[in-house]
Specification:
The complex is a heterodimer of chains A (389) and B (328).
Chain A lengths: L3 H18 L13 E5 L5 E4 L4 H11 L1 E7 L1 E3 L7 H4 L1 E4 L1 E6 L11 H23 L7 E5 L4 E6 L9 H12 L5 H7 L8 H16 L4 H11 L3 H11 L2 E4 L2 E4 H5 L5 H6 L3 H18 L5 H5 L4 E3 L13 E3 L9 H4 L9 E6 L3 E5 L2 E5 L2 E6 H9 L4 E2 L1
Antiparallel strand pairs in A: 1-2, 1-3, 3-11, 4-5, 6-8, 7-8, 7-12, 9-10, 13-16, 13-17, 14-15
Helix pairs in contact in A: 1-2, 7-12, 8-9
Chain B lengths: L14 H9 L3 H18 L10 H14 L2 H21 L2 H10 L5 E3 L4 E5 H7 L15 E2 L2 E4 L1 H22 L2 H7 L4 H16 L15 H11 L6 H14 L3 H8 L7 H11 L13 H6 L19 H12 L1
Antiparallel strand pairs in B: 1-2, 2-4, 3-4
Helix pairs in contact in B: 2-3, 3-7, 4-7, 6-7, 9-15, 12-13
The chains are: A alpha+beta (389), B mainly alpha (328).
Chain lengths: 389, 328
């Protein structure tokens, strides 16, 4: 007879061992942070203040949290129950990237999800935070969340006092929200091509027309995706194959559209077909170039987020800080296994068979009792795919 | 070089500057006091028309507004000044805009060759959130390596929001203890402004307690005594008297009773006029005119009265409110 409570107690004992043997990686100004946790039995407990790394060690070894969090905000009195009494002093700017916001995640494996989320995390850091916003690597901390994604923390004087509305500007920007063909047409000028979305969209549109076949039947394959009616697609193609003036020269519209620069907006705003075309291209540019972040996490200036070095209660993996330059080759399913759990085996009971990829290998799980490496046993029981026995 | 109103830092304009203005007998300072008091008075009476003021007057008014502590009035003043600032900046050259913004603590650069401003992205998002319109969103901005490249239209919009935020922050940071201390000579003025404002806000009478004619200002006392002695009151004096008495809490019939002593008393006409002024016929409850109006119509009898001679006294009702308060 399988006892779920007993399995849970075993998992708690293993978490306890971890918290005794390994040290967490506390954020700066720990005493100004609110600490919250979800225990193995019971619900979220918040509004704690922990003064030092030593107190923290004592606390986690005793409380044994299933999930442990800290506030990204700094407070004068983090242990007050009411938000207004805590006295907000500022907050890190954080980004949460996980499977929930990835298109088609429900049909992907855990490994595929992690790879896809990593792609968005790289885009967020390289293109938006460092490229556009000029955030330095030294002003950022990157963590594997222990679950299905990554957290990026911007720790800089530039961001601490930003209110929720200003943070919303950043999330909308990273997701490419509010970009419309009419908006682009009415606001575009030469200056705009110096960076950000206007520059991205410009390149995307030019690239599209540069590779669009100049032969109608071939081009129609592409344009049918844009226009619901084949007639409209055909007439749009015929239209852009006709010449228009650009400066003192005359060129086919399609060639003007293929050039980088604002002339393309004049061509695309000539009629409804062009505007629809631009709208479609903006959507595709967003799909290909934005980073899927969970906006409420970024805009909430009172948010709790996973504590660096703590264990994720649904995987037994740790919230692991990593260097941004290591991200491309980072494999969380190897690196985030705590040292404490690397050696030894444990017995589990699985109700159905399956496989998991962990620590660089594929482990087959059969139905019934069996022995597997300890970290795999923890992962399987924490994610409720098996019981520790 | 063009000029536009600037928010002065606490180092440049603090408690000691305010004290100097309050206590000085110099012409320039009394001008500052008068302008600021007029401004508060207009704000309270909902007659405020933004006009260009000096930096010192602007700051002094912010201090008085801090003392008054009515956020709606503070907003009205700051927004009025913001609108003046906007039209001034629109007349500025690009480099003057750059200069102005920098003096205000908003760091941006103007690139003369490219005719374009560079605004740090965090300055941009701190100040664009209340500007509506797609083209002011960060998503539409050319942003690269932490810099938003902006034209003057965008920069003026950002600068005006920056001005509003800084002005509010300045008011919030003025210590209430400081204002209470430095504006001690204005305590009566501020409390009368508060009463008047409450009255306007609630558009009903504030309970001033039983009518006490010994607390009436010299003008009202003069009108009553003239009327009693059989002098025909000019129309404006009569209007002032009725609206004043009404605001102090006298009923229409009590007022009519008083007018029965007038030599040209005409019951029908008096009832009509009183009911008109008190709003019973017109639907509009009239307030007595300000001191300035009475003065220019030769209906002011302030003489040597100390309260009337306060430079901040603007209104007969203000006089009554203060006298009543002190008699409590």
């Amino acid at each position: 007879m399988i006892d779920a409570a007993e399995s849970d107690q075993k998992l708690k004992n293993l978490f306890h061992r971890y918290y005794v043997e390994e040290d967490l990686d506390p954020p700066d100004l720990l005493p100004s942070r609110e600490i919250g946790y979800i225990p193995f039995n019971g619900s979220m407990s918040r509004h704690r203040r922990i003064q030092s790394a030593r107190d923290l060690k004592y606390f986690v070894s005793n409380a044994v949290p299933r999930h442990l969090y800290y506030s990204t905000s700094y407070y004068r009195r983090p242990d007050e129950k009411k938000m207004q009494d805590k006295e907000w002093l500022g907050a890190e700017l954080i980004f949460d990237l996980d499977a929930d916001h990835i298109k088609g995640a429900d049909t992907m494996t855990y490994v595929q999800i992690l790879a896809e989320v990593k792609k968005h995390t790289i885009r967020l850091i390289d293109d938006f935070l460092m490229g556009d916003l000029g955030i330095q690597e030294s002003e950022m901390k990157l963590f594997f969340s222990g679950g299905r994604g990554y957290h990026v923390h911007v720790i800089s004087d530039k961001v601490y006092d930003l209110n929720s509305d200003s943070r919303r500007e950043i999330t909308d920007f990273i997701r490419g929200e509010n970009l419309t063909s009419q908006g682009m047409i009415s606001s575009i000028n030469r200056t705009q091509l110096l960076g950000g979305w206007p520059k991205r969209i410009d390149s995307f549109v030019s690239d599209f027309f540069r590779v669009l076949p100049r032969e109608r039947t071939e081009a129609m394959e592409q344009l049918k995706r844009v226009f619901p009616s084949a007639n409209t697609a055909r007439s749009f193609f015929d239209h852009i194959m006709k010449p228009s003036r650009i400066g003192s020269k005359t060129m086919n519209r399609i060639d003007i559209l293929s050039l980088n620069g604002i002339e393309k907006y004049r061509i695309l705003s000539e009629d409804e077909r062009g505007i629809a075309m631009l709208g479609w291209l903006i959507e595709r540019a967003r799909e290909n170039m934005s980073a899927e972040i969970d906006d409420p996490v970024t805009t909430d200036v009172h948010r709790l987020i996973r504590f660096p070095g703590s264990l994720h209660g649904k995987t037994g993996l740790k919230v692991l800080g990593l260097k941004i330059s290591d991200l491309p080759s980072f494999d969380p399913l190897v690196s985030a296994i705590p040292e404490t759990f690397r050696n030894g085996n444990a017995k589990i009971y699985a109700e159905k068979e399956g496989t998991i990829d962990i620590n660089g290998q594929t482990i087959r799980v059969a139905e019934g009792e069996q022995e597997v490496p300890l970290y795999a046993a923890i992962f399987l029981s924490a994610s409720r795919q098996a019981y520790l026995i | 070089m063009n000029s536009a109103v600037e928010i002065l830092s606490p180092e440049k304009f603090g408690l000691s500057s305010v004290r100097e203005i309050v206590e000085s007998r110099e012409q320039a300072f009394s001008e500052t006091r008068r302008t600021a008091i007029d401004c508060i008075d207009d704000l309270v009476s909902d007659e405020y028309k933004p006009k260009i003021v000096s930096n010192v007057t602007f700051m002094f008014t912010l201090w008085l507004l801090r003392y008054l502590d009515e956020s709606v009035l503070t907003s009205k003043f700051i927004n009025g000044q913001r609108d003046i600032l906007t039209s001034e900046l629109e007349e500025f050259g690009d480099e003057d805009i750059e200069d102005y913004c920098r003096r205000m603590g908003m760091h941006l650069d103007f690139d003369v060759d490219r005719e374009i401003f560079s605004v740090p992205f965090d300055t941009f998002i701190r100040n664009n959130t209340r500007i509506s319109g797609e083209k002011y969103r960060l998503s539409y901005q050319p942003v690269n390596k932490g810099t938003v490249y902006a034209n003057r239209d965008v920069v003026i919009k950002i600068a005006r929001e920056f001005f509003v935020k800084s002005a509010f922050r300045t008011v919030e940071n003025i210590s209430m203890n400081d204002v209470v201390d430095v504006f001690e000579p204005y305590a009566d003025f501020i409390s009368s402004m508060r009463i008047l404002y409450d009255q306007l806000k609630s558009s009903r009478k504030v309970d001033l307690g039983a009518v006490d004619s010994t607390k009436f200002p010299p003008c009202i006392r003069e009108y009553i005594s003239e009327m009693k002695s059989g002098v025909n009151l000019p129309h404006l004096a009569r209007f002032t008297l009725v609206s004043f008495l009404h605001k102090t809490g006298m009923t229409s019939s009590e007022i009519i009773e008083l007018f029965k002593t007038a030599p040209d008393y005409n019951e029908k006409m008096t009832v009509y006029q009183v009911n008109h002024v008190t709003g019973e016929i017109s639907g509009t409850e009239y307030s007595p005119p300000k001191c300035a109006v009475l003065k220019s119509n030769h209906l002011c009898y302030m003489g040597e009265d100390t309260l009337c001679n306060q430079e901040w006294l603007r209104h007969p009702l203000q006089y009554y409110q203060i006298k009543k308060k002190h008699s409590k």
